[in-house]
Fold this sequence. Notes:
Blueprint: H1 38-52, H2 64-71, H3 75-87, E1 91-94, E2 98-101, E3 140-141, H4 154-166, H5 180-194, E4 203-206, H6 209-219, E5 226-231, H7 235-243, E6 247-254, E7 257-258, E8 269-272, H8 286-299, E9 302-306, H9 322-328, E10 335-340, E11 352-355, H10 358-371, H11 377-388, H12 391-413, E12 421-424, E13 431-436, H13 442-451, E14 454-455, E15 457-458, E16 470-474, H14 480-500
Helix pairs in contact: 1-3, 2-3, 4-11, 5-11, 6-7, 6-10, 12-14
Keywords: Aminotransferase, DNA-binding, Pyridoxal phosphate, Transcription, Transcription regulation, Transferase
Domain HTH gntR-type: 36-104
Pfam families: Aminotran_1_2 (PF00155), GntR (PF00392)
Amino acid sequence: MVAPVKAPLSAHTRGPLPARTDELPFPLDLRRENPEALHAQLARQIREAVLSGLLPGGTPLPGTRTLARTLGVTRGVVETAYAELLADGTAQSLVGRGTRVRDETPAPTPDVPVGASDLPAWLPVMPPLPVDGPGGRPGLDFRVGVTSTATLDRRAWRQAWADAAREDVSGDYADPAGEHRLRAALAAFAGRQRGLGAQAEDVLVTGGTLHALNLIVRALVPPGSRVLMENPGYRAARQVLLDAGHEVVSVPVDVDGLIVNADTPAARLVYVTPSHQFPLGSRMCLPRRLALLEWAARHDALIVEDDYDGEFRYGAPPLPPLAALAAQTGAGGRVLYLGTLSKVLTPSVRTGFVVAAPPLLSRLVRARTLLDFGPPVQVQAALTHLLTGGHVDRHIRRSRRWHAQVRAALTESLDGLEGVAHLGGIEAGLHVCLHLHPAIPARDVAAELAAQGVHVTPLDTYTLGEAPNALLLGHGGLSAAQAGAGGRVIAGTLRSCATRARLAP
């Protein structure tokens, strides 16, 4: 037993305060150097003792003056701690009986360890998260899905946020579909950049593509529905569908996009990336697009068109979105167009949009309301300034030139690999697909490159079943010099692999 001190310790004393009292059957460890306030430490330790059964219901607590003197603290510290315990129901104060542990405090269950935090037995095991973590791997990272902000007009960017900050702040909730000005600006943007005819009333502002897909599969698709998905395909989108409880059926793709024929099964919804198939990089040809629209009409299905990087094309004329073709053929109500500003500006703005027919959009707005009541108003205001001021269009033109140079440097550095590897998906987007000879396993090449500080992604991580032997090279976050340097390392490694495999590049 530690003898009580006779006077409170100085506020400048370091280390633990006296460890226990005669009245409490457990040690108290109060430390002045702890960032947690002394009264909070005292209340927490008494609360833990009650929950563990060391202080049963009805146990009297020491008087505030006695405990303060014993611990070497001011009486106010103990009074504040007791007030916290009274407020949360741990203790009760009775006239003539002082402060004591609440009588009805339940005793711990003997079979359950004190402090156990076991999860419910019915909680399902979560699969690994199918997204890459934040960057930061040393060396050159050909990471897929990122973009460069090197061409961003910093002055226009800062001005947009300054203008947004000067706007009046409302005390009311905003429109869960998004501010009308931004919806109108996004509709006009989709018309200029992608030839999609839309009005503000057709647009829902979202937190990005995955957020939009979550809204769609929960608000529009009955539980347990069959959904078709490209294979290889966007793995995070696949997981969204699975987590929503839907049956995901993989449909193969080729150089003309999703294969649609008489064997394509019926489903409630299909998710496609027709402008730049992710991850192979092909684009869906017109006959396939018409076949997909006919399939949707025949099976009474919806089509989700993810146009994640349709603004970036190099040397090939852009095909209009599937949604525009659907509108021309009278099937516009079946296609939900997903656009995003993540590749156009930066993923950090967390803003995308859905263009859909009013009956579908109203259901999505309802789901958005119940989820989070809409996007942040200040972010919308800044993006509206950038869109309406022409800054986004100018940024896209600069970015196209930048990424075209990066792509050219990468493809030039990978030249001369005939018979060993060839590039696919180079007409558009911010990544390419490097197809390898069957004798050179993609995973082995990726491991060998990582040892040299060059990071690439094997295609099989995006594929169910047998995957093409290929590597994904994301060049969106690199400069031309970096892409060229990394490409030369990749080419050298592949030539070494070809020599070991007795191939002649």
